[in-house]
Amino acid sequence: MGSTGAPQNTAAPNAPFFTPIQSPPAGSALSENPPTLFSPLKIRDVTFQNRIWVAPMCMYSADNGHLTDFHLVHLGAYAYRGASLTIIEATSVLPNGRISPEDSGLWTDSQIAPLKRVADFLHSQNQLLGIQLAHAGRKASTCAPWSTERGRAITATEDVGGWPRDVMGASAIRWGEGFANPREMSQQDIEDVIHGFRDSAKRAVEAGVDVIEIHGAHGYLISSFLSPISNRRTDSYGGSFENRIRLLVEVIKVVRSVIPAGMPLLVRVSSTEWMEESSEPDSWKVEDTIKLAKLLPALGVDLLDVSSGGNNENQRITPFNDFQVGIAGQIRSALFKSGITNLLIGAVGMITEAEVAKAIVENGKTVNETKEGEDGKVEGTEGAGKVVEIEDEQGAKAKADIVLVARQFLREPEWVLRVAFRLGVKVQWPQQYNRGQFLKGSKV
Ligand SMILES: Cc1cc2nc3c(=O)[nH]c(=O)nc-3n(C[C@H](O)[C@H](O)[C@H](O)COP(=O)(O)O)c2cc1C
After folding, report:
1. Is 80 one of the catalytic residues?
2. Looking at ligand 1, which atom is closest to the CA of residue 351?
3. How far is residue 29's CA from residue 26's CA, in Å, rounded to a whole number?
4. Ligand 1 binding pocket mutation candidate from 57, 102, 142 (most atoms within 8 A of CB)
5. Nearest CA to ligand 1 atom 23
6. What pLDDT sits at residue 376?
7. pLDDT digits over 270-299, tens only?
8. Average pLDDT over residues 414-423
9. Rounded to the nearest whole angstrom, what is the distance from the C-alpha of residue 163 to the centroid of ligand 1?
10. Using CA atoms, how far apart are residues 414 and 410, in angstroms rounded to an integer?
11. Can you give the residue ranges of every domain in the chain?
12. pLDDT digits (tens, 9 = 90+) for 36-45
C-alpha cells in the first residue's frame, strides 16, 4: 500500500525499467496437484515453473551475429506468456559456423550486449532464457530459406555475405545439392571450434543466460562427427564410436568447465540419422544415442534433447515408434533399465495438442536430489533432479521430462496458457493480460 492506502503497482525487482512484478511467473499452476506438465522442475539451481520449453528456432534475422529488436520481441513474446524456458536459436561460436550470414553468434564481445538485453527483459518478467550454442559445419554459408525456391539450399556466396571457401566439416564430403564443398578440419580447426564453444559459453554467462544447450543435431558440425557416413577421418576423431563422439565430449567438458555449477547444461542430438534403410553399411542409430546418453551425466549434462535427422540428403524418415517422442521414451526407458536416473529427457517434434503434451510427461515425477561437493559446489554428476518412474493404473509411463515445442509457438505464442486452459489447470497469466483470460465454456 502507498501512504494514502492506495495499492501499489509494485515494480519487478532489479529490472532496468519499470515493469510490474510477475510473481509467481506466468505459466505457474495456481491449482492444487496439477498434472506433471504444470508441476515445477528443478535442475541444479534453476527452477522451471512448468515442463514446456520453446525449442530453438533460427530466424535468419541477426545483424552480423548480433541479436536485434526483432529477437527481443520474438523471444519475449513466448517467455512472458509462460514458457518456462525460451531457448535462443542456434548461435554460432565462430563466424564460419553460421548456417546463413544472418544467424546469431557469440564469437565476439560486442554480441554480449544485445543478448544481455534479451536476458534482462526475460528476467524482468521472471522468466528464464536458454541459448543453443552451435557450429553449422558443412551446412554453413547457405541463404535464408525463404529466399530460396521451396526451401532448397543455396550456397551463400561472398557477394551476399557468405564464406563458401571457408566451410569445414568432419570430412571433405559435401552435404548435397546447394551446399559448399567443405574442407576436412585440421587439428587446429578442431581446437578453434572447442575454444569457440568455451568463449561463447563464457559470453552467454556474462550476458545472464540461465541455461546452455549444445547443438549436436541435424547434421551440423558435431552431428556430422557422430555419424560414420559423414565422418571418414582416420585420426582420433574418426572411426570408432569413442572417436566419433570425441568432439562432442570435449565441447561438453569445456563448456561445463566455464559455466556456473548451478547452471543446467543440455545437449541436443539427432537420435537417428534415418539411414537404417539405406545401402550404407553403418549409420548413427538410436542404439548409438542410448550408448552416448549413458555417458552424459558423468560429463555434467542434465538433459538430452531428442531430435533426429538432417545429416543426409537421402534420409528416409520411417515414423516408427511415434516419431521423435517415441524415441525419447525408448531412450528414457533404456536409461532406467540401466539404473541411470540423473539424465532428464526432452521430447520434441509435432507436439501440438494439450492432451498429448500432458501424456508425454505424466507420471514422470522428479525429485531434486542435488548434492553439494566438498567445496560447496553442486557436483556435476548429481546435478539433475532424480527422476522417479511412476506408472499409472494403465501402466503408462512418461516418455520425457520436458516437452520442447517449436512451430506451435509460431502459430500460438500463448500456447502454454491455452494448454493450461484446455487441461482445466488454472495458471498465472501475465498481470497485464489478466483481462484476456480464456473463459469457461469458450472454445479455444
Ligand atoms: C523456423 C525453425 C527454425 C529452427 N531452428 C532450429 C535451430 O536453430 N536449432 C535446432 O536445434 N532446431 C531448430 N529447429 C527445429 C526445432 O527446434 C524443432 O526441433 C522442430 O521444429 C520440431 O518441433 P516442432 O514440431 O514443435 O516444430 C527449427 C525449426 C523451425 C520451424
Report:
1. no
2. 26
3. 9
4. 57
5. 349
6. 39
7. 999 999 989 999 999 999 999 999 999 999
8. 97
9. 24
10. 10
11. 36-434
12. 999 999 999 9
Distance 378 CA to ligand 1 centre (A): 31
| Closest C-alpha residue for ligand 1 atom 29 | 57
How far does residue 130's CA lie from ligand 1's centre (Å)? 14
- In this predicted structure, the answer to whether residue 330 has a pLDDT above a threshold of 60 is yes
CA 307 to chain CA mean position, Å? 10
Q: Model confidence over 42-58: pLDDT tens digits? A: 999 999 999 999 999 99
According to CATH, the topology of domain 36-434 is TIM Barrel (3.20.20)
Residue 318's pLDDT is what?
78
Ligand 1 site, CB within 6 A? 55-58, 89-90, 132, 215, 217-218, 268, 307, 348-351, 405-408
Q: Is it the case that residue 379 has pLDDT exceeding 60?
A: no
pLDDT score of 320:
58
* pLDDT, average across residues 358-380: 58
Catalytic position from the list 60, 78, 220, 237: 220
Q: Ligand 1 centroid to 55 CA: how many Å? A: 6
Residue nearest atom 2 in ligand 1 by C-alpha distance: 57
